[in-house]
Amino acid sequence: MIGDDTTPTAAVPAAGRPSAPRTGETRRPGTPARRASGSTAVAPRTGAFPVRPPVVSQGSAARFAERARARRRLAWRQILIAAGVVAVVGALAWLLLLSPVLALDAEQVEVTGAGTVVAVDQVRDVVDDEAGTPLPRLDTGALRERLLDVPGVRDATVSRTWPRGLTVALVSREPVAAVPESNDVVAQAQGDETLDAGGFALVDMDGVKVGRADAPPEGLPVVEVPVGDARILAATLGVLESLPADLRADIGQVSAGTQDTVRFTLRDGATVEWGSAQDSALKVAVLKALRAAPETAGSARYDVSAPTMPVVG
After folding, report:
1. With respect to CATH, is domain 177-312 assigned 3.40.50.10960?
2. Torsion angle defined by CA atoms of residues 178, 183, 187 and 189, in that order, rounded to the nearest 10 degrees
3. Dist. CA 229–CA 223, nearest whole Å
4. For the ranges 64-78, 94-108, 235-249, which has the lowest average pLDDT?
5. How far is CA 151 from CA 13, 174, 189, 205, 228, in A?
6. CA nearest neighbour of 173 among 186, 154, 190, 155
7. Which residues make beta-bridge pairs with 255?
8. How many CB atoms lie under 10 A from the CB of residue 146?
9. What number of CA atoms fall less than 13 Å from residue 155's CA on the CB side?
10. Is the pLDDT confidence value at 173 over 90?
11. Quick one: which of 238, 226, 227 has its CA closest to 275?
12. 76-80, 111-115, 258-262, 303-307: lowest mean pLDDT where?
């Protein structure tokens, strides 16, 4: 109207309310209204979103199944390997410890070193007790101890000869001297109270009686020492042990009043003043030189008790 000073104005939407659609703007049903510029209003949630289940393809399922089969095959393989190892160990244990494959055969036992005084039959009797025992189970140490009880055995070595044999190497107590049985040194050493005054005890290097004889065997010297003195007998036998075999074979008799006054009587009748067991190698060399030299060969007496100053008479 003319003369009216009021001007029409657009309506201002209330705060928090959605504005009316603009001219020419359409809004789809179900679509939230556009927020006004600078507005902080958030559209309300209508509820939790649904979780979709994982989708497994046919290829993934096949791979899972193949892996499971591989694990089962590996487990069975390990079980079979363990069972095989147990079977092999059991078979070896039976073969080595129980079966007759490696059992000792008495016919395959070899005995050496019996010498002249050890009865081989007695040695074999001891070994035959172990016949049929598998070699891995055979106690060679215990067998050796039993062999040392055989008369005349000084030492023994027992070794296996595969697959079913045994080797017994003996060190026999060979006699080196004949001692009159009237000398009770031997009786005291052996505990023998039934000595024949007319016989001879055959003793080895250790003074152990290994036999007897009515007369001194050829090649063995007769030892004469004070009755009952084992120390002098041991010293005399020690001197004989230090001599070479050829010189020992030339000795017919050995006598001693003390440990340092050993004397030999050679088979040709000459005497040798030997003295103690010291410097035996030098004494042997000096005596051989004196007996070989033209000036002293055939002498009746050789004194080598002081080998650097020998005396010939």
Report:
1. yes
2. -70
3. 13
4. 94-108
5. 136, 11, 15, 15, 24
6. 154
7. 224, 263
8. 15
9. 3
10. yes
11. 238
12. 76-80
Task: Give the pLDDT band (50/70/90) at residue 4.
Answer: very low
The span from the CA of 297 to the CA of 303, in Å, is 14
Locate tokens 């060979």: which residue? 174
Between CA 304 and CA 280 the distance in angstroms is 10
* Residue 52 banded pLDDT, cuts 50, 70, 90: low
Who contacts 23 (Cβ-Cβ below 8 Å, separation ≥6)?
Answer: none
- Structure confidence at residue 294 as a pLDDT band (50, 70, 90): very high
CA-to-CA distance for 117 and 172, rounded, in angstroms?
7
Residue with token string 């007998």: 233
Most confident option among 29-33, 63-67, 157-161: 157-161
Say how far apart CA 65 and CA 99 lie, in whole Å: 49
Q: Given CA atoms 282, 283, 288, 294 in this order, what sign does their dihedral have?
A: positive
Domain 101-172: CATH architecture, name and number where available? Roll (3.10)
Predicted pLDDT at 20: 47
Q: What pLDDT shows up at residue 56?
A: 53
Q: In the β-sheet with 251-256, what is the strand arrangement from edge to edge?
A: 209-213, 200-203, 177-180, 222-224, 251-256, 262-266, 271-275, 301-303, 311-312
- List C-alpha distances in Å: 40 to 34, 35, 111: 12, 8, 115
Pick the more confident residue, 230 or 272.
272
Q: What distance in Å separates the CA atoms of residue 211 and residue 220, rounded to the nearest whole number? A: 13
Angle of CA points 207, 212, 214, to nearest 5°? 135
For the chain, the average pLDDT equals 81
* Domain boundaries defined on the chain: 65-98, 101-172, 177-312
Contact 200/215 with Cβ under 8 angstroms?
A: yes
What pTM did the predictor assign? 0.60
